[in-house]
Amino acid sequence: MQATTLSAALSGPSVSFGRQTRPNRPNVTAMAGHGRFFVGGNWKCNGTTESVAKLVKDLNAGSVPSEVDVVIAPTFMHLETVKQTLTNTSYKLSAQNCWTGKGGAFTGEISAEMIKDMDIPWVILGHSERRSLCGETEEVVGTKIRYALEQGLKVIACIGETLEERESGEMFNVLDKQLIPIQNAVDDWSNVVIAYEPVWAIGTGVVATPEQADEAHAFVRKWLEEHIGQANAANLRILYGGSVNDGNCVELSKKPNVDGFLVGGASLNGETFVTICNAPKNAAQTA
């Protein structure tokens, strides 16, 4: 499906995608972040032995700017293979999920200790697909984040609203509700990035406009300034995820509050993913 903006894909008097309002909250303005640009690649439940070998080959051949942090998250089945064959040191590895606590009689689960033992530095937690398909609540996500950090992992913590929540003007309230357990779980914010992924844009080909993405990121940044302090908020990377591809990444990367991307489907193509990793450099060249 060709990527389109949300406003172009949906129309009608009942649909509003302008500035969201939140009770008792003024116009959202926040200081832009100044952390290193960060690109994550979430392979989700995809990959065969053959396709993963091809993808790793293309990633190894790619050139990624040294000032961009890049983390890729294969399936658990492929993590060890990718670890052994990914020779390009520009990339770090991530797991896609972990259990709420220490391992044990939890069939099908993966513990943070196992991930750490494999020398995998990152884990994705709170992704909307885990929330909606597996019933993970804000409290479960917060528990997972705290335990993963306690075991020495770094966390990509995901938040985002559904289309219904955005249309009803509840976007900021939803993000507020999702951010509170994350705040309560984190002591050292240098080991965390936050990925804002509007659920209506994940894997749909519908992309938030750069302005919509920046507005949501500005709200998150302002929320963080108020709850964890300006210094932590400025250093914390806020990623955009939702049908990011090689055609829209440059414009998205130009927005002051977009500190990177969490890429889904486009991360399964090595050349495309490398292009996305080069978005800040290409944006600077076209400025």
Short description:
This protein is of the alpha/beta class and 287 residues long.
Detailed description of the structure:
This protein is α/β, with parallel strands linked by helices. It has helices spanning 6-9, 49-61, 76-85, 112-117, 128-134, 138-150, 163-167, 171-185, 210-228, 230-235, 249-253, 270-277, 279-286; strands at 4-5, 37-42, 68-73, 91-95, 122-125, 154-159, 192-196, 206-207, 238-240, 260-263. Strand 4 (91-95), helix 4 and strand 5 (122-125) form a beta-alpha-beta unit.
Tags for this entry?
globular, alpha/beta, 8-stranded parallel β-sheet, single chain, 41% helix, 287 residues
Task: Reconstruct the topology from this structure.
Elements lengths: L3 E2 H4 L27 E6 L6 H13 L6 E6 L2 H10 L5 E5 L16 H6 L4 E4 L2 H7 L3 H13 L3 E6 L3 H5 L3 H15 L6 E5 L9 E2 L2 H19 L1 H6 L2 E3 L8 H5 L6 E4 L6 H8 L1 H8 L1
Parallel strand pairs: 1-8, 2-3, 2-10, 3-4, 4-5, 5-6, 6-7, 7-9
